[in-house]
Each structure stands twice: as structure tokens, then as C-alpha cells.
């Protein structure tokens, strides 16, 4: 019996299994060693729109150009050579075949997420001449996990963010600052801390109301967030007071940042209930030095510089001496 006859016999033996698997909700494809499609089930027909007759004996790469050829060949060749299964999950590769997603529960996803299992089909002589590829629709699972990851990320962000301002809350920024202090202590970096607060903020609340005060704080925070770098840490100290850590920034460059912020704040007008509110900020800066015994003392030095700004008439920046 020649190889062609053996292959025909093996495929005939598979037909009874295919009859059983035609209606299961799993894609089933049989490939030969040349990556040609020998048979597939109704799941594949329904989702691809291609009949068995259209694809039979054609290369899988011709029928589905989106299949990554080098990756897929490596997977399939290992099944032929090692005579053992291979797998692909949606987390490694979202899909093998770009099928539309029709599940109502996961209708937000345009494409079906898939897991794939590649199974060697042994012939009577123990050789592997065909591979069975099973495709599982795991869109529900993938969507659920993605949503869970998104919610966890959102919860994590909420746990470290001040609700009113969107800045880091005190618990989180103080933890970051302590780490920055230890880094500076070890490597001698020229990092700086900046503290500022809104001048005469009590007058804003007393004159315009607490909701107006909240709006002033929100817009101050929004402007600050627009200015900071990704490596900076901006947080709310409490009330109308804010703190910014500027890694790898000496006091001179920190003052340039502070003055830009001060001038931008001075230039804006907050409108609340048709009332226009103008306000200013006072700022204090302290650059790291090896004599600082703790991160708390570092913040305290910046706070003293802020006090000098207030004593000097407000709406200015001072650097700790």
C-alpha cells in the first residue's frame, strides 16, 4: 500500500469521528504535513463562511492569510516531530482565525477570542501524518478576565488617588517620597520637593462657598497634572496644600517649574455660579542634601520655605537655605 492509499484510509477512518464532532461548539480542522486542510467541521464553516469543499486540499495560509505562518509552522512541526500536543491560549495570541464575535453576552468584543490545541493523529504504524487542530471560543472567559483586570486596576488607582483632585493621596505619595529619599541618600541624586498652597483660601470659602473652593482646588490640581512629568509625583497634602516630588531635579530647575506653575495659576480665572474667582499660590522648595535625617525632615524644610513665601507677601517661591 503506497503513501497515498494509506493517507486515504486514515482519512476515511476519521470520518466517523467527524460525523460525531460536526455539531459540537468547537472548531475542528485536520491538516497534513504540508499544512493543507483535509477536513473541518460545521463550526469552522459557520464562522468562516467557507464550505468544506472550498477549503479542502488548500493550504491553511491561503485560506486564512491572517494566520502567522512562521509561528504556526513552528507549532505544527513540533507536533509532527515530537508526537505530542501543542497549545496556544488567547493570552498569548488573542485568536488564530479572525472570526467575528456573535455572542450576545460579549457583544462589545468585535473578534472571537480563541484557545487552540494541536493534537497528533497517529497512524497504524505509529507515524504522525496528520494533526487535528481544535479551536475553542473563549470570548466570554477572555472578556470576563479583561474586565476583572480593568476593575482591579481601577480599584488600585482609586486606593491611591484623592477623589476631589485626581492627585495621589497622602498615603501613597508619602510612601513614594520615602522611597525617593532612600534613593537619594544612597546615590546622592539632586532631587527636590516642592510644597505649595492656595493663598487666602479661607476667604475663597467664606466669600464664594465651599463648592467654589472645591472648584478652585480641582482646577489647581488639573493644571498641576498637566505640567508634571511621568517621573514626578504630585499629591494632595491636605486641604488646599499640595506637594510635588521632582526626581533628578536640583533646586534651580525646581524653581523654574514652580514659577511656571505660579504664573499659570495667577493667570487663570475660576468661574462658579457666574462668579469669577482669581487666586494665587505660594511655594517652597527644598533640594535633597545628605544632612537630612529623614524624608519627614525633607518635607519640613520645604514647608519652612513655603512659610517664608507667605511671610514675604505670598504669590512667590522660596528655596530652603
TrEMBL record:
<feature type="domain" description="GGDEF">
    <location>
        <begin position="189"/>
        <end position="321"/>
    </location>
</feature>
<dbReference type="InterPro" id="IPR035965">
    <property type="entry name" value="PAS-like_dom_sf"/>
</dbReference>
<dbReference type="Pfam" id="PF00990">
    <property type="entry name" value="GGDEF"/>
</dbReference>
<dbReference type="GO" id="GO:0005886">
    <property type="term" value="C:plasma membrane"/>
</dbReference>
<dbReference type="GO" id="GO:0052621">
    <property type="term" value="F:diguanylate cyclase activity"/>
</dbReference>
<dbReference type="InterPro" id="IPR050469">
    <property type="entry name" value="Diguanylate_Cyclase"/>
</dbReference>
<protein>
    <recommendedName>
        <fullName>diguanylate cyclase</fullName>
        <ecNumber>2.7.7.65</ecNumber>
    </recommendedName>
</protein>
<dbReference type="InterPro" id="IPR029787">
    <property type="entry name" value="Nucleotide_cyclase"/>
</dbReference>
<dbReference type="InterPro" id="IPR043128">
    <property type="entry name" value="Rev_trsase/Diguanyl_cyclase"/>
</dbReference>
<dbReference type="InterPro" id="IPR000160">
    <property type="entry name" value="GGDEF_dom"/>
</dbReference>
<dbReference type="GO" id="GO:1902201">
    <property type="term" value="P:negative regulation of bacterial-type flagellum-dependent cell motility"/>
</dbReference>
<dbReference type="GO" id="GO:0043709">
    <property type="term" value="P:cell adhesion involved in single-species biofilm formation"/>
</dbReference>
Amino acid at each position: 500500500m503506497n503513501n497515498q492509499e494509506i493517507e486515504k484510509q486514515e482519512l476515511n477512518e476519521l470520518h466517523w469521528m467527524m460525523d460525531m464532532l460536526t455539531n459540537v461548539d468547537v472548531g475542528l480542522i485536520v491538516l497534513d504535513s504540508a499544512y493543507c486542510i483535509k477536513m473541518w467541521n460545521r463550526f469552522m464553516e459557520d464562522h468562516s463562511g467557507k464550505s468544506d469543499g472550498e477549503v479542502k486540499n488548500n493550504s491553511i495560509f491561503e485560506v486564512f492569510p491572517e494566520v502567522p505562518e512562521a509561528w504556526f509552522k513552528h507549532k505544527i512541526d513540533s507536533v509532527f516531530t515530537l508526537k505530542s500536543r501543542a497549545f496556544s491560549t488567547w493570552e498569548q495570541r488573542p485568536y488564530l482565525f479572525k472570526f467575528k464575535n456573535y455572542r450576545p453576552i460579549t457583544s462589545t468584543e468585535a473578534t472571537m477570542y480563541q484557545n487552540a490545541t494541536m493534537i497528533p493523529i497517529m497512524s497504524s504504524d505509529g507515524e504522525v501524518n496528520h494533526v487535528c487542530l481544535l479551536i475553542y471560543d473563549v470570548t466570554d472567559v477572555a472578556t470576563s478576565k479583561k474586565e476583572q483586570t480593568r476593575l482591579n486596576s481601577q480599584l488600585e488607582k482609586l486606593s491611591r488617588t484623592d477623589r476631589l483632585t485626581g492627585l495621589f493621596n497622602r498615603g501613597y505619595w508619602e510612601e513614594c517620597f520615602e522611597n525617593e529619599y532612600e534613593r537619594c541618600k544612597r546615590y546622592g541624586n539632586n532631587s527636590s520637593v516642592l510644597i505649595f498652597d492656595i493663598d487666602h483660601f479661607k476667604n475663597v470659602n467664606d466669600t464664594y462657598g465651599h463648592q467654589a473652593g472645591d472648584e478652585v482646588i480641582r482646577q489647581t490640581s488639573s493644571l498641576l497634572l498637566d505640567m508634571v512629568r511621568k517621573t514626578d509625583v504630585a499629591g494632595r497634602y491636605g486641604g488646599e496644600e499640595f506637594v510635588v516630588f521632582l526626581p533628578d531635579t536640583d533646586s534651580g530647575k525646581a524653581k523654574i517649574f514652580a514659577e511656571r506653575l505660579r504664573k499659570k495659576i495667577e493667570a487663570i480665572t475660576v468661574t462658579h455660579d457666574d462668579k469669577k474667582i482669581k487666586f494665587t499660590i505660594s511655594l517652597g522648595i527644598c533640594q535633597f542634601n545628605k544632612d537630612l535625617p529623614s524624608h519627614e525632615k525633607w518635607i519640613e524644610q520645604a514647608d519652612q520655605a513655603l512659610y517664608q513665601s507667605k511671610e514675604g507677601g505670598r504669590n512667590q517661591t522660596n528655596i530652603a537655605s
